[in-house]
Write a structure and sequence with these properties.
alpha+beta; Alpha-Beta Plaits; 2 domains; 6 helices; about 35% helix
Length: about 180
């Protein structure tokens, strides 16, 4: 059995995944221990299945119960802890509503990364890529950022982002879920 953090892409605004119905649907779908966090598509669960199988099962449940068919990303608890430990902006970790982690479906190619670097020239935003994670810090906040809305299209990879407050909360939920086993 392993603990996983599962993130749904594109949840928020008009697309909601209500946490209690989602949790209920996942339990009814065969997942025994499940925790959800806010209506933006965050799930922590424990399973003995492989990550790819977990995502396939969750995708089928989300489509059937909620007509949701966007990307779903999954990291094991050790991978999540590494994401936190590898934060290249530790001086901004206390600004949890501004610092973000973008999970990417795959590592972007070098030319796409260079294109994003060019778009960031002269802007106060900072980003670093480590594997399939883009760490992003816009000091003015994401809603005022000139780069935030261009990240996914410029890198040409599917992403889902969470602010640092959510990143840390999901780590806490994973720890708590394991302790209740």
């Amino acid at each position: 059995m392993a603990t996983y953090i599962v993130l749904f892409r594109g949840v928020g605004g008009a697309t909601l995944l209500p946490v209690q119905p989602l949790k209920t649907a996942l339990i009814e779908g065969g997942f025994e221990r499940v925790a959800t966090y806010i209506n933006t598509g965050n799930v922590v669960l424990i399973s003995d299945a492989r990550p790819k199988v977990i995502v396939q099962r969750i995708a089928a449940i989300a489509l059937e119960k909620f007509a949701f068919s966007k990307a779903i990303m999954i990291l094991s608890k050790p991978q999540w802890k590494k994401l936190i430990a590898d934060n290249p902006f530790p001086e901004h970790a206390g600004e949890g509503d501004k610092l973000h982690a973008f999970l990417m479906e795959k590592k972007p190619d070098d030319e796409a990364v260079k294109a994003l670097e060019r778009k960031a020239i002269g802007l106060p935003e900072q980003f670093r890529i480590g594997g399939k994670v883009l760490y992003y810090y816009p000091p003015q906040g994401a809603s005022q950022s000139k780069l935030h809305g261009k990240i996914e299209s410029t890198l040409r990879v599917t992403t889902t982002a969470r602010n640092w407050n959510t990143v840390l909360k999901l780590e806490q939920l994973a720890d708590k879920l394991e302790k209740t086993s």
